[in-house]
Amino acid sequence: MTNSARFDRGHTDDLMSFLAASPSPYHAVANAAARLEKAGFRQVAETDAWDGASGGTYVLRGGAIIAWYVPEGAGPATPYRIVGAHTDSPNLRVKPVPDTGANGWRQIAVEVYGGTLLNTWLDRDLGLSGRVTLRDGSHRLVNIDRALLRVPQLAVHLDRSVNTDGLKLDKQRHMTPIWGLGQVAEGDLIAFVEEEAGVSPGDVRGWDLMVHSVEPPAYLGREGELLAGPRMDNLLSVHAGTAALIAAATAGGELTAIPVLAAFDHEENGSQSDTGADGPLLGTVLERSVFARGGSYEDRARALAGTLCLSSDTGHAVHPNYSERHDPGHHPMPNGGPILKVNVNQRYATDGSGRAVFADACERAGVPWQAFVSHNAMPCGTTIGPITAARHGISTVDIGVAILSMHSARELCGADDPYLLANALTAFLEG
User: Fold this and answer.
1) Same structural domain, 29 and 144
2) Radius of gyration (C-alpha) of the chain in whole angstroms
3) 89 Cβ contact partners less than 8 Å away, ≥ 6 residues apart
């Protein structure tokens, strides 16, 4: 039997439901908020005055959510323990003028978001999701979760060298999905979205829409030891972080720090937005929390000086067909537990002290863990970790789950690793 026989699959089953219900960052934060509400957390508006009451609280802004739990007796200088993650994934997003087409085909104009593997969006049944902004300024979530769109690949008969010379895709010319036949008419797509969303014709004034694969997550392998699904980079961490925060808040133990979940948008294109990790959202929320508990600037400085953050994002499992692209001494494997991500050039924020914090959390949780470092001849990716450390002066450790096919429309991980990650995050938040 493999490792998969050791664990209850309830957590991974729940992750699969979360992935399927969260085709966009806006759905992801709405679903995380619903879970927090069920656990007794309350939403506060950024435009309202905040109180210093104990208990669970969260803030929503676009595709980002910050949630925290203030234990009884927490003072204004009480430090935070933060799980950081991001809600966005590489995909295709609808342009401002979406209706297009040629040669009798009706198509939707899209822009490539993030560093997506373009070929993984070909010949795949796609739905449409995101949010629309109505005339009164309110938002409405949209999830058309059925086969609506498709980006068809050119037949091999018309591209005879594709299997020898490789597939070459032009982002502008080759990635435009089809959604029907007939004459192109301006306003068709948004009129269709209005009907699907149940809003009055002409009521939609803006949109943040994207395509998603309608194929549901699934167990894979002889014993179901693997999990295939969309958007695991990085909704796997958002789901685990939400579960860990709820567990820490409801366990009844004595917390020495304030546990926080910070799930940002726009990581895949640099985090520079009002909902990204390079924006002011996290710092503002932490500062207002200190002040709401009667704290001063001095208390804020003391609280942040004692704060720790685990930046949880997916990393690379060793690929059996391309093992030469990985460092020979670091081969993370599925179901081997979460990975500690290290890069001395600060593409990851981990240092020796951070390693000790992570190792301690895993030991207390009874969770195995692995180390990841990039091959010296290969460029290293990055996460919200270094941004969080640099922007807020917070000690940060980069961790995650090892996956294959990162930035594909459909990724692959060990079926036990989401459960192991959640347990490690819970132990970290509990201190």
Assistant:
1) no
2) 22
3) 114, 230, 231, 233, 234, 235, 268, 407
Give the number of other Cβ atoms within 10 Å of residue 62's Cβ. Answer: 20
Single-letter code of the amino acid located at 68: W
Containing structural domain, residue 279? 3-89+230-430
Q: Are 220 and 227 in contact (CB under 8 A)?
A: yes
- Residue 1 confidence (pLDDT) above 60: no
CB 139 within 8 A of CB 33: no
Picking from 108, 104, 78, the residue whose alpha carbon sits closest to that of residue 94 is 108
Residue 283: CB atoms within 10 A of its CB come to: 16
Do 339 and 306 reside in the same domain of the chain?
Answer: yes
Residues 316 and 375 in one domain: yes
Q: pTM of the entire structure?
A: 0.96
For 430, phi then psi, to 5°, come to: -75, -20
Across residues 219-248, what is the average pLDDT? 97
pLDDT band at 6 (very low <50, low <70, confident <90, very high): low
Are 35 and 247 within 8 A, CB to CB? Answer: no
- Same domain for 291 and 267, yes or no, is yes
Crossing angle (nearest 10°) for helices 417-430 and 10-21: 100
Res. 3: pLDDT tops 70: no
Instruction: Name the CA dihedral angle for 31, 33, 36, 41, rounded to a multiple of 10 degrees.
Output: -160
CB atoms within 10 A of CB 174: 16
**Cβ(110)–Cβ(116) under 8 Å?**
no
Residue 219 domain-assigned? no
Please check whether residue 122 lies inside any domain of the structure: yes
Distances (CA, A) of 121 to 86, 89, 117, 215, 408: 21, 13, 8, 12, 8
Q: What percent of the chain shows pLDDT beyond 90? A: 97
244 vs 240: CA distance, rounded Å = 6
CATH of the domain at 425: 3.40.630.10
Residues 99 and 116: their CA atoms lie apart, in Å, by: 23
- In Å, the largest CA–CA distance within the chain is 72
* Domain boundary residue, one of 156, 188, 213: 213
Which uninterrupted H or E stretch holds 307?
Answer: none
Above 70 in pLDDT, residue 7? no
Residue 29 · residue 239 · CB < 8 Å: no
Give the pLDDT score at 5.
44
- What's the pLDDT at 252? 80
Work out the number of other CB atoms within 10 angstroms of the CB of residue 231: 27
